[in-house]
Structure formats: structure tokens, C-alpha cells
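note to self: dont lose this again. the chain is below, predicted strucutre after it. 438 aa total, dont forget to put it in the shared folder this time
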Amino acid sequence: MDERPAESGASGAGAPRVRFRTVDADLVGLRCQGCGQSVDFGATVGQCLICGSVHHARCWDEAGHCRSYECSSGRMQTPAGGVARIGADELQRAAPLPPSRPIAVYPRGVHIGSPPPTAPDRRVWSKAALICGIASVFVFGLVTGFAAVALGIVGLLREGRTSRSRAYAASGIALGTIGVAAWIVLISYVAARFMPQGGMVPTDLDLASGIDETALEAMSPAIAGALRANVVITIEDLLHGSLGSGVVLAMRDGATLIVTNRHVVDSDYSERTTSSDPPEGDVMIRFIDGVEAVGRTVWVAPAGIDLAVVRTAGKSLAARPARIRASGPAPIGDPIFAVGNPHGLGWTFTEGTLSQHRTWTVNGVGVPIVQTSAAVNPGNSGGGLYTRDGELIGINSMTADHRVAEGLGFAIGLDVLRRNAPEWLRDEIGSNAEEPKP
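---
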């Protein structure tokens, strides 16, 4: 700010009329009322305290007063001894003066005219897209994700002139797309786990109902023994539900040992699994007489072979251990039958023939399997495959896609269990083994 003293005018004794100051942002662009030139930033000007007009310091010094229209129109000087005359040429060159601007006082000093308006935030759509994109990862993404993509596109079209707006909009679109994809995968996974496959099984049946003692006594001993050895196995956790079958191997000292498929009791199992650690969590067991018990998986086969053993303290008066074929494969073409719980239909008996002995390679290990024409469906997994005399020869494990094949079921041969089981389990298997009948 220039320190020159303010001058006095005629409007009152000692009343200041001008203040000299340095041009800042408030005065840049105004014109000097003396020479008509724009005032430059940093220059020293004199500002009239009556009308607010500015003059270059030299223009004020030359005139000694304000030359603005507001201050000088009533004090026009005429030539000495005559009358001021305006010619035609001067009238043609005359131009209307611009309207006067109001004087406003702000913290930074006197400002002529209204303050510059504050620019509105031009990133409303882009910011909304980013917020919805972040929300789509945690909240239901099929709604917030699509909203983020839509808002992001609008933001690019309407606000995409700045790099920050483009970044907000693009980030919202990317996060929204990821959120939609992730939620679609999650919903598909949950639906595949919990929704029933195939829908032809009546829904008003007691699917896990057993068989009463009178009916068992009327059957052949071979079939009745296989049915008594069959159990229903179910597990449930947050994102997984499974139903399968199992075969009672031994009942001793208040404990029951049940063999089944690993994929029935281990939700993380796949053909690439190599771990030999039993899965944690409870396994629900239901015996033929309706007795229910909680069990734990105590052993799984090595190298990812699809076998596991469950132990439970539950007691059933109707259940019996399966009779195990002692040695030697059953001949091809022999009648065989399978027992299990296909689609939850408990204690289902199906029969067929032994079609072939084959080898299934799992993680580089050859696993003997039995091919059979007996009907095997989802839910039969873990159930027993028996000779016509009721001797357990395999654990039903898989079936071909029924849309492209019929009569193709497979069971893991019981010799796999004998060969890989620990000593305590081999002893239990041996105690129930029977030599094949001639």
C-alpha cells in the first residue's frame, strides 16, 4: 500500500478525497478515469473515496481531482470569458458512458462492483459414481454397482473436462463393474450349493425316513444287512450344504466308525487336493432307525483319494456293520447292488452288474475303481457297492452325466481303503472281512 497522504477536496474542510494504493486482484482490469488505460497489477493508483474510481497516480497529480463522470459532471470548466461550445464532430465521436458500479467494502479493501461469483462444484456426478462404486463392494452390488456405472458415464459426458473428474468417474465405473461381477459370482456359488439339482423328486416325502424292523426281517439277509449298514450324512456351514451316504465299518466300545467319500464331509475337497488333514466341523449322522448323532472326521485318504472315515458316539440298535469281502476282486458280469441316499431318498436299493475294473489316476496315484451299471445318483456318494451276497466291495463315488450317458457308475475299490488306512483302521476292517463264497 502506498503511504502517500490522502488529499482534501472541497466537499468539506479536511475531508479526504483520494487514497493511494497498490493495484491488487480487486482492481485489476479497471481503467484509469484520466487516460483511459487499464491499471496494471502492482501499480500505484489513486482511488476516489467519493465514487470509487481509480486513476494512475500521475493522472491524479496532473488533474488534482477525480475525473470520473460522477465527480466532474457538475463542475465542468468553461473557457475564460466565454461559453463552452460542442461541435458536430464532437457529438459524432461521443459514446455513452458505462453504468456506474456499486462500491462494496470487503476485508481486503474497497472493491468496485460485485464480488466474483464462486464457481459451483462441477464434479457432482463423478463423485456420486465413485461413492456408489465403493459401496458396491460391500453393499448389494447388483444395485449399487450398476448405479456406479451409470453415474460414471454421465460424469464423463458432463464433467469430463478436468482430469480429476475423469478419474472419479473412471474409478466409479471400474469399482461398480467389479462389484457387479463379484456379487454375481457369490450368488451363483451360493445357489449352486443350496439349490437342489434336478427338481423331479417329490418335495412332500420324508426323504430320510428309514425302514421298520418288520420290513427288514422280510428281506433277504444280504440286502437287509447292507441297508442296516447305510447311514445318511449331512454337513452344513455358512456357504455350503452337503448330503451323502456312509457305510458302518465297526461298532465297538460305544463308538461307530463310518466310511464315506471325502467330498461328502469336506467342502474344500477337489481332485487337486493333496492334504491328508481331516476337515474340522461336525458331521450329522442318521441311522436306519432314525437315531441321529454328531460325528467328526478322523481320517482321510492320502494323495487326495476320495475316502474318509467318521467317528461318532451315537448308538443305534438297528444298525449293523457291513460285511466286507476279504480279498480278491469280484468277477466281471456278476450281479451287484448299491445302497445309498440319492437326492435324499434314504436307504435306496438299486441293482445292476459289475461292468469292469478300471484305474482312476488322482494326483499321479493310480486308484482301482469298479464300474457298474447300478443306478448311482447325487446322494449315493459314500454309500456301499455290494456283491449279490451282501459283501461290501466298494464305496460309490461318482457317476457319468446322465444327460449324455446311462448306466455308468463308479465306486472306489475297498482294497484302496485297506492299503492306505492306518493300522487301527485296518484292524477294524479285518474284523468284519469275510472270505468270498465259492
